[in-house]
Amino acid sequence: MTVSGLPELMTVLACAVLVIGLSAHLLVADLFRRIISLNVASGGVMMLLLVLAVRGPGDQDPDPVPQALVLTGIVIMAAVTGLALALARRVEDPADEDDRDEETP
Amino acid sequence: MSGLVPGLLPGLLPVPVFLPLIAAALAALLPARARAWLGLATVACTAVVVTAITAGVAGLPGRGSGEDALSLALAGWEAPVGIVLRADALSAVLLLLTSVVGLVVSVHALAAGRDADALPSMSSLYGGPAFWPLWLALFAALNGVYVTGDLFNAYVMLELLTLAAVSLVALGGRAGNGAAAAALRYLFVAVVGSLLFLMAVALVYAEAGTLDLPLAAERIGPGPLLHVALALALVGLAAKFALFPLHSWLPVAHPAAPAAVSALLSGLVIKAALFLLWRLWGILGPVAEPVVLQGLGLAAGAAGSIAVLWGSFMALRRRRLKPIIAYSTVAQVGYLVLLLPLTAGPVGADAFGAGEGSGPGWTGGVVLVLAHGLAKAGMFLAAGNLALAYRGDRLRGLGGAVTHMPLTVATIGLAGVSLAGLPPSLGFAAKWQLLTSALAGGQWWWVPVLLLGGLLTVAYTALMVRATFNQPGGPDAEPPARRLPRTLVLGPFVLAAGSVLLGVAPAGLLEFLGSGTGDVTAGAGDAPGAAGDVPPSGAAGGDGS
């Protein structure tokens, strides 16, 4: 199933994506771009986890554990992104607070 | 004793995680008043369970037989695939600290919430009704980090912790006072830290083929992959507990939060990431090449030393209570990291937790976590009270507070005594252990840092206390703008007093912490350290009292 060298290539690419995401996160000032770049960086880590699922050459099924981890990781990043976007909106426009009513019953 | 234990007690391990988690979901649905009581009841029940777990850990045969931890395989799935919960002495102590501080903070928030109806500004003490579900989720995540034996599970718990903590910081205010910006900054740093930690987890899995920490330590070999994983975990977790070059979010986020939240963040949340780092160091560290481990430890120790001095120096230059206390946390984190170089020597590890709990360095660090957790939580709550009573926490506006709110000022003073490590406080017992360890290991260069840091701590505590005195020659002391109910004043005082009084007789605590491997280490050639474990501080406690 696996082409020889593909996992190695994927590992290098995964690290590259992580580094690109993190550098962008640290260098960019705009809050929304920072949130997006954080997601890119997490994509790198997820790619690495997926590469780990490859179990040697041959027809072996991939290891399900890293795949389960990636699923969990994606869910967590979605939650983090949601919270980050809500906070970023408050920072950019302090008047824009939908949930004001909810917090002062 | 162990005959009774194995059947029932391990079954309690999931309770401190799941009970608060369920309560958090419920609390989000309830009206504000009911939330507070549900929250307090949950924390109290959890505290009882945690006490039982601690008693169970203390009753284990331990002593190097490999049975020094309670463990439970969730849903009957054993280690290579399943998630195993474990609690040893270190977990038990941190669980107990979390419950005690959590209980006091819950009572504080409940009392503040009850008066918030009459006096809306009271809700600034704890952040309003949204505090409860978030705090319960935070509580569940903290307990989860302490009982998990699984690396990925630890990552999930850390993320839950981050989400809850960031949301709690954002409760710090309506538009304009920067709480949202501080929370977002905290979130960014924490998530970058998590990603690096997840990378480390992935590398460990690649090498060991399991996420179970003790099992991974058996399967993994010393190699570049393990070393990179340890370095990534160090940097990632350091970002989460605000070690020196990565600390800049903390003095922004902690003061921006409501007082009760600041107390939780500084007293408890920081400790979860630190705990994980110690765990990794204790279990995977012994497998790594000693040179690499010592190098990483030295780097961490150097950063920690700068943190001690820089944090204290910045604290001295602040002119508001909460930023001073937040910078003090930056400094204290430095002390806690000094553990890594102090224990980086080759320590034999055969089972879960065997690498830690050996020698006075580890015990000192754990006791310091305890002392700092109690003292810092008390200090932040007291600062919140002063800020409420005097409409702001500027040092200039606090003149005369000592005559009108003596107990609150005493709380700050007592907590400062423990943070500085003056005898007979718990902080002293901890720092004594660290000093002993540094000298026994021939690493004398950490000693001046430890001592100078203590001196600076006294200085900024004095700065805060002095600001509350009546100005000489000035007008008479002003009465506070508002009177505070007794409950709000007593809670922080109990925490601060506890962090001092526990130091009078720390021998039992030290013995409990050392129980995991005391004998093994003594036989493994680490004799000066292990032998110096309990007696000096016992004697020291006697001197002080």
From TrEMBL, chain A:
Keyword tags: Cell membrane, Membrane, Transmembrane, Transmembrane helix
A cellular component annotation (GO) from this entry: plasma membrane
Membrane topology designation: Multi-pass membrane protein
Protein name: Multisubunit sodium/proton antiporter MrpC subunit
InterPro entries in the record: CPA3_antiporter_subunitC, NUOK/Mnh_C1-like
One Pfam family from the record: Oxidored_q2
Highest rank taxon of the organism: Bacteria
Family statement drawn from the similarity comment of this UniProt entry: Belongs to the CPA3 antiporters (TC 2.A.63) subunit C family.
Residue ranges of the TM segments: 6-28, 35-56, 68-88
Subcellular location: Cell membrane
